[in-house]
Specification:
The complex is a heterodimer. Chain A is built from 17 helices and 20 strands. By secondary structure, chain A is α/β, with parallel strands linked by helices. In chain A, strands 6-7-8-3-9-10 form a 6-stranded mixed sheet, sandwiched between helices. In chain A, helix 7 links the parallel strand 7 and strand 8. Chain B is an all-alpha fold. Chain B has one domain: Orthogonal Bundle (ABC transporter involved in vitamin B12 uptake, BtuC), CATH 1.10.3470. In chain B, helix 1 packs parallel to helix 6. Classes of the chains: A alpha/beta, B mainly alpha. The interface between A and B is medium-sized, with 32 and 23 residues.
């Protein structure tokens, strides 16, 4: 199998021969201080085709896309459009050549209406704006591609999926022939992903070219006509044919070795209740952020909280950690109430907290690994580094943290290593041995290798009898690790299911606020 | 109680409001682009003395207005370079501009000390209309710049909310990354509106000099109007139409101590009355410092935040 795929990988990238590519990059090199982001990368996309750029975070796919749309300029190499060499000096130039990027973080003004956002930056408009006429025009463009949008709605009120549609309509309105979609599914629930894929098909049928940027193997196989895999700024392989690519092979091309992201569940019976949450409600500024949440987490168990970002997950974690006081309800750790007692009290009862914002809330970026470790170790007036130093060295070794030693500054760690430092500190316990670990999006932004390690660490902690509450927007992560899953939607638990029998469709529907079919 | 004095007071409020409208509109355009220019007071003073010197040496009031406005744009240019090009802290840059502007104005004003402009901007007369009781003096006996300031405010409102460049301006203040992704230059938009804002503030300062004070009294010439203008923008929710009414209201409070004194109403100490506008400014600044209130008031989301295209 390896041999066969190598053949594919070495195949000429102008596989189509005569058909001129809509957009091609030729031997692109792009350097950032200290990083070779793109190392003589070739890439091309045909009219009516979905060509995926697959790679881990930092593989150079976003950099390449940024050069294809004019956001950055290549150091060497050039770009051709329909066979002709073009210079993309700015995103404006990209748009003039019919190339538009749909960014992962939407470029939309929340206070503006859909129509205002769509027309923003269009040069062919008169000085005076006629609102209703514009809205009709925008609606017409949207409809012609089967993208239903409400042109008069305020973008701030729209769901993430709808906003993405606005971005796509904006690109089409500006006459884009080539759309670069940067990690378009990262923020969507499964039902929205399906809808997006339908839209992508409608666009390719109309002759548009799609450059799809992703690191999620499953969806890549489903949507792509061709896949180009990047690793460390280099093209490591090409695979053609929709639905024919082998995910294992793609993963190997992407990571450079075989990886195993498998399902892990509690291997033994779980112990007594560590975390108890009763009727927890939280109101912030008149808005119900959390309402009537009750659940337990047992020793040796991992409970997953799934949900789209902004449905109360962060507040739930902060409340358990004692950083916020609930409006009503109670929280207890190991049978002791922690409600309204503050974060130190919760930590003394064995709480460990890995917040989503790992460099900032989790670690102090300007302090060394050692000093960051001291934050939970020592509360005396005079700082005693000598006793903690051996522990820091041991943890760096044990967690395989790539650092120059305990004095390595947190800011200078890569995302994966920073997360390992944080996990090392939290899992190893401070003044009290860790009994309960609350982790938020522990693998967000990490590359596949680091994801593997972090998940293994969490699994080890569970096996060691610690109770774990995993709060993550990555549904795959929650589904593959949790023993029980709760879905949070607008601050309420709308769905509960054991991890083993969890159905992607049901959990996904619950995340989108739809009533799951049948009770589980 | 003498009714006539109150009519005159109201007419005065409208007149004082002119500087406020122009200065606040200048701040509004600057802030709508996402640049916070706290240096308004310094710009007002420098443009006031510049207009005085220009008008005094040339004998032309109009030349005075033009020079004053251009000096306003020039000073705002310093702020634009510091905060947009060099991405300095805008609060620090703005405060520096106040100190610089005040010092420069006092320096330039040395020879003007005690002098008076020979001709001042005179109110227009609309014949019988100006003699209508109550309405006449308030509405029909103002000078051309006062009328112009109201027209500018109305046009500004249409520009902001009904035109393509207005849309781009508002987008720049809210979400510069989006504007950048559209291939528009955030820096160029911000610099242009900072300069234009300075021009309006400069016009306001010149008018204050040439129509209101007529003589140079150092910092007492503006008497903190620049700070009040900044507060006014906040209270007006960054909307030019609301700003007109706010300016008249502030104008009324500003002249109230004098009217009360003239009426010999002494149960409210006049020092306390004089404090009111600054109290309002303080409240506005406190409101601005809370993100949630900021949002509710309608502040441009990236106000005061330098734009950097995120490099990876």
């Amino acid at each position: 199998m390896t041999n066969a795929s190598h053949e594919v990988a070495k195949g000429p990238h102008h596989a189509s021969g005569a058909a001129p590519s809509a957009l091609s990059a030729h031997s692109i090199v792009k350097r950032f201080p200290g990083v070779l982001a793109n190392d003589s990368v070739d890439f091309d996309v045909l009219p009516g085709e979905v060509h995926t750029l697959l790679g881990e975070n930092g593989a150079g796919k976003s950099t390449l896309a940024a050069m294809l749309c004019g956001l950055y300029q290549p150091d060497t190499g050039y770009i051709t459009r329909n066979g002709e060499r073009i210079a993309l000096s700015s995103p404006r130039a990209g748009l003039q050549h019919g190339i538009a990027m749909v960014h992962q973080h939407f470029r939309l003004v929340e206070r503006f209406t859909v129509a205002e956002n769509v027309i923003l930056g269009s040069r062919d408009l008169s000085y005076k704006l006629n609102r209703s006429e514009l809205e009709d025009k925008v609606a017409a463009v949207a409809e012609s591609y089967g993208l239903p949008i409400e042109p008069g709605a305020t973008v701030g009120d729209l769901s993430v999926g709808q906003r993405q549609r606005v971005e796509i309509v904006k690109a089409l309105y500006q006459g884009a022939e080539i759309l670069l979609l940067d990690e378009p599914t990262a923020v969507l629930v499964p039902a929205e992903v399906e809808k997006l894929f339908e839209n992508v098909h409608a666009m390719t049928k109309a002759g548009k070219s799609i450059v799809f940027i992703s690191h999620k193997l499953g969806e890549v196989v489903e949507i792509s006509d061709r896949v180009t895999v990047l690793r460390n700024g280099r093209v490591t392989g090409h695979v053609s044919g929709r639905g024919t690519a082998d995910t294992k092979e793609l993963a190997r091309l992407m990571v450079g070795r075989d990886i195993e992201l498998t399902t892990q569940r509690a291997s033994h019976a779980t112990g007594h209740e560590i975390l108890q949450i009763r009727d927890l409600s939280l109101t912030v500024g008149g808005v119900n952020v959390l309402s009537d949440i009750s659940f337990n987490v047992h020793a040796g168990e991992m409970v997953g909280i799934a949900g789209v970002a902004g449905n109360g997950q962060r507040e739930l974690a902060d409340t358990i950690a004692g950083l916020m006081s609930p409006t009503s309800g109670s929280i207890s750790i190991s049978g002791s109430m922690t409600t309204d007692r503050g974060p130190i009290h919760a930590r003394e009862l064995g709480l460990a907290y890995v917040p989503e914002d790992r460099l900032g809330m989790g670690l102090v970026p300007s302090m060394s690994i050692l000093d960051n470790l001291l934050l939970t170790r020592d509360r005396r007036v005079v700082v005693d580094r000598t006793t903690v130093r051996p522990e820091a060295t041991r943890l760096i070794e044990q967690f395989e943290i790539k650092a120059n030693g305990p004095d390595h500054m947190a800011r200078k760690l890569s995302g994966g290593n920073a997360q390992k430092v944080l996990l090392a500190r939290e899992l190893s316990g401070g003044r009290t041995a860790t009994k309960l670990l609350v982790v938020c999006s522990p693998t967000r932004g990490l590359d596949v290798g680091a994801i593997e390690t972090v998940r293994a660490l969490l699994d080890d902690a569970r096996s060691a009898g610690q109770a774990i509450l995993l709060i993550s927007e990555d549904l795959d992560e929650v589904m593959s690790l949790s023993d029980r899953i709760f879905v949070l939607y607008r601050g309420s638990v709308v769905h509960e299911t054991p991890g083993e029998s969890a159905q992607l469709a049901t959990v996904g529907a619950a995340m989108a606020g739809l009533k799951p079919e049948g009770k589980s | 109680m003498n009714g006539n004095i109150w009519v005159l007071a109201s007419a005065d409020s409208v007149a004082i409001a002119t500087t406020l409208i122009l200065a606040a509109l200048g701040a509004l355009f600057t802030e709508r682009a996402g640049v916070l220019n706290l240096g308004i007071e310094g710009i007002l003073l420098t443009s006031a003395i510049s207009s005085f010197l220009a008008a005094d040496s040339s004998g032309s009031i109009w030349l005075g207005l033009i020079v004053g406005s251009l000096v306003g744009a020039l000073l705002a240019g310093i702020h634009a370079v510091l905060s947009v090009v060099l991405r300095a802290n805008q609060i620090v840059a703005g405060l520096a501009l106040v100190i610089f502007g005040t010092g420069l104005a006092n320096f330039l004003g040395k020879p003007a000390e005690g002098k008076t402009v020979t001709t001042i901007i005179k109110p227009l007369s609309f014949g019988p209309l100006s003699d209508i009781p109550l309405v006449g003096p308030i509405v029909f006996r103002q000078d051309p710049i006062t009328y112009a300031s109201v027209v500018i405010a109305i046009v500004s409102s249409l520009y902001l909310f009904r035109s393509r460049p207005g849309l781009e301006l508002r987008a720049t203040g809210d979400d510069p990354a989006t504007v950048d992704a559209q291939g528009l230059s955030v820096a160029s938009i911000r610099i242009r509106y900072t300069l234009f804002g300075g021009l309006l503030v400069g016009l306001g300062g010149s008018w204050l000099m040439l129509a209101q004070s007529a003589a140079w009294h150092q910092a007492a010439t503006t008497n903190g109007v620049g700070w009040i203008a900044l507060a006014l923008v906040v209270f007006a929710g960054w909307r030019p139409m609301r700003l007109i009414f706010g300016a008249i209201l502030f104008g009324f409070t500003l002249q109230l101590p004098f009217t009360l004194q003239a009426e010999q109403i002494t149960f409210i100490p006049s020092a306390l009355m004089q404090m009111l506008p600054y109290l309002a400014t303080l409240i506005a600044l406190i409101a601005l410092s809370r993100p949630s209130t900021r949002n509710k008031l309608g502040a441009p989301k990236s106000l005061g935040i330098p734009f950097v295209r995120d490099e990876r």
